[in-house]
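tool=predict chain=A
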Amino acid sequence: MFVGHYSVAFAAKSEKNKIPLWVLFIAVQFLDYIWATLVLLGIEKLRVIKGFTAGSMLDSYFHPYSHSLIAAVVWSCVGAFVYKTVCSRVRYPCIRSAALIVGLAVFSHWILDLVAHPRDLAIYDNTLKVGFGLWNYRNPEFALEIALLGIGMVFYLAQNIMPTIRKGAVITFGVALTIVQIGDTYVPRNRENRESAAN
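tool=predict ok
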């Protein structure tokens, strides 16, 4: 799952909660930021395997600290706590449920990954791995990503008052994300098998 994650950010943003859209963008990809950092540090493990799935060649076979269910819950709580603390420190207007929304946005990453990933998402540590495996079906997975993005953007445009030029910018950004997803899904890559340099 890639651009589908952004659907949650778009749908969660409203005039009422006043959460900046960029904060929600970070929240929905926060687990992947943690994952990328830990892979670079050699703590979590990744290998590129030819034909691993139809939609991805990445076999993230050890990522319990960023993508296990327990870790996702912990990082979601961290995200909510940090947002609430920062808003309090800088006196940014923050409704009572805003921190909860940010935390749920972080956790949504794991839920959507559960749909797309093969059985590589651990419940705890590196055990009891789950995943529905939609990455094994390239066209349906692509369709779901774009459908989620479209639905999220519809919610965003309906819930937020903005000038026409900003609406156009949002739609343009959505088109750009769609193009990126097309490239990620359908453009051929170098298919040599290799371990992550951090391994």
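The helical segments are 4-12, 21-40, 64-67, 69-90, 98-116, 138-159, 164-186. Residues 114 and 131 are 5 Å apart (CA to CA).
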